[in-house]
Structures are given as structure tokens and as C-alpha cells.
Amino acid sequence: MLHKKLNNDIDFRELFKGGAIALFFKVLGVVVGYFFLWILAQYYGTKGVGVFQTLWTLLMILSVIGKMGFDTSIVKFIGAYKESKRSELISNLFHKIQRWLFIIASLLALLLAALSEPLSQLLFETKANSNYIIFTAISLVPLVLLNYHAESLKGLKKILSFSIFQNGTIYIITFLFIVYFYHQGYGLKSTIWSLCIALFTLAIISYFDLKSRLPKVELSATKQGYTNRQLINWTLPMLFSNSLFLLMNWTDTIMLSAFLPEANVGIYATALKIAALNSVILVAINSIAMPKFAELFERKEMGKFRRFVKHSTLLMFLTSLPVLIAILVFPSFLLGIFGEDFTAGKTALLILAFGQFFSTISGSVINILNMSNRQKTARNIIAICTFINVVLNLILIPIYGINGAAIATATSTILWNLASVLAIYRIFGFVTYPFININKIR
């Protein structure tokens, strides 16, 4: 059946092959990420994991603001240009946006560095760690550019290159420098040095890789691309949506840092990392599905659009189910790999895993909305669920600790997925769940 489907459906074949490449590198990245956390735990204990995860969280949140939503919209723009036979405009668009992102990220980095002491006091209860914040600020510009380069490669459907410039490669390079600095006796502060070096290295390499793949024809006098106003109007909703989405995903870690010791944050971060195995499938398949959503929508082939959505969600379900079963059966074992102290996160892991699995079986719902000109709908859904997430974390963390954070995160994850599924049904007349065939009669 699969062989027949691959031969007869070119869209499914592209999804399957591209998704397989992305999934391989994503799984490799996850394995490397867990090994990275394990090494960090062996070298610096739960406190070291907590400090690094707090800085990484801060960096990720600021990078979303620095990217201005262009890391998502560039996939849409490239798809639209290719479908309208205007590929020669892609290079100009890419470089224009890159200049904007460099300026914005640099300003954010300067602001973060200026606030290093009060932020250190807030996050670590001491100003002595302000240097950690300064090196986090230095890391911001290369992270923004690296993410933008990777998403541009995704838009060009260069899935192999896109997959290489992901977190797994960041962890590998960071790990190598952490080991070096550790044996030189530099201590915990060298972890953020190592991350900074890794990001600069990959940002430079990814730029030259992407530059070699961009169409060589320059902007002609007879063809015009998107105006600045059009770019901003398109991207601002995605900026708010992405910012709120990341805030929702990282609110638990930030609030745990404020309410509980670093060791608790480290335990929770590890449980979250294991639970996120379910979302690995979603991210991998999204790498090929996002440009395809944009392409089919631009061509107005809504029958193919619907089938492709269903096929992608079914593929996510089938590949993520074994992961959920493994987490449900072996939660203590998986956490215990990182050390005996980490098994305290068993309940949190089970709660988080359920929420992540629900997200996977719902499909690429936010990306479907973003790639089909419904980015404002996506923004509104994420805004409401982010507010709910913050309130739940404020209420539950002081009472239940890391389990309260897990409940808040899982609840908000389920809510935004359900809301997005309903929005897609209202707009397009079908639900994304693979085994539910409800079609609106028009």
C-alpha cells in the first residue's frame, strides 16, 4: 500500500522522502541533545543543567523577537515567488530581510547586555553571573541569522542543508568546546562561551551554503517584488504569533527559575526534553510540509491541500505512537539515565508527554494557518492560550512545583491545538485528525 501511494501520489512521495531525511537528522539531533545534557549533568550536576537551560531559554525568547517572524514568512514568500515564476526575486528579498534582522538583533543584544546585572539578580539571585547574560547577548545575532538561513533553505526545499543547521549541530560543536574548556579548568561559565562559538561558526557556514543555492539573476527593472509595507503586514502577525508561542513554551522554565532552585529547573528541563521526543516527528515532517502547504494553497488546489494535510498528520501519528508508549512504560529509566536525582521528574514527564502527543496527532495546524494567509487567526489563538498558560503557571507552580508547570504546559498545548483544528474546520471544511473524516457541507 505504501509503495503504491509513493508511486501514485507525487505530493506524498515528496513528503515521505523529505520527511525521512529531516526525521533522521532530527532524531540524530535529539540523541546528541540528550548526550549533551548528560555530559552537562555529569560535569556540573542539576544546577549546571538549570543554569544552561535558563540562559538558552532567554536566548530563544529574544531570538524570536529578533527574527521578527521572517523565519516563518520567508518560507511563504519563497513558495509564492516560485509558484508565480519569479524565482529571480528570491535573492534580493533574502538579503533585504537579512539586513533588517542583523540591525534588530544587534539592538536587542545591546539592550540585553545593558540589563545583565538586574537579569542576573532576577534569574540567579546574584549579580555575580552577569557575565553569563553578556555572553548570551553576544550569541543572539548569530542565532537569529542561523535560524533565518535554515528556514530560507527550507523554503527552497533544500531539506538536507536545512536539517544540518539545527540544534543537533549546535549541541555537537558546543559539546566539543565544553569538554575542552572543562579540562582546562574554566568551570560552568565556559558552557555559554562554547554555545557562543558554535553559533558564530554555524551562522557563517550556513550563509555561504545558502548563498550558493540562491537564484543568480538579480532584480530586473520589469519585475517588482514585495514592498516593505507588504512584508511588514505579512510578517507582524507571525512575529506576535511566534513570540507568544515561544513564550508559552518557555514560560514554565522561566517561572520555575523564579520560584524554585536551579536543581528543580534542571530536572524539569530534562523531563521536558524527553517528552519533546513526540514533537520531533512534528518538526521533522513540518520541514517539508510547510513549503508544500504554501505551494498547494497558492495553486488553489484545495483537494490536494486537504489530502496532503491528512497524509502528513497520519504520518506524524504512526511515527510518534511508539515514542509515547516508550515514555509511558519507561519514564523512570529514561530520566535515570541523567542521574538518580532526575527521577523526581517522573510525574511531570508523563503529563508533558501526553500534551506533546496530542499536539502531534493534531498535525501542523499553526503552520497550515500561517501558510494559507490565516496568520492573524493563528496569532489570536496563540495569544489566548499564552495568557491561559501564564495564569496556570502562576497558580500551579507555587502549589505543585514542577508538576504544576507540567499541567499548565500540557493544558495550554491541548487548548491551542483544539482551537486550531476548529479554525481549520471552519475555514476549509475538514478536520486534520487522520482517522476522523468530517467534511463540512458547503
TrEMBL record:
Which superkingdom, per the lineage?
A: Bacteria
Cleaved signal peptide residues: none
Classify the protein's membrane topology as the record does: Multi-pass membrane protein
- Membrane-spanning segments: 21-44, 56-79, 100-124, 130-148, 160-180, 192-210, 231-251, 271-293, 314-337, 349-369, 381-402, 414-436
Gene Ontology cellular component terms for the protein in this record: plasma membrane
Sorted alphabetically, the keyword list is: Cell membrane, Membrane, Transmembrane, Transmembrane helix
Where is it mainly found?
membrane
Q: CDD domains given for it? A: MATE_Wzx_like
Q: What is this protein called?
A: O-antigen translocase
The top of its lineage is:
Bacteria, Pseudomonadati, Bacteroidota, Bacteroidia, Bacteroidales
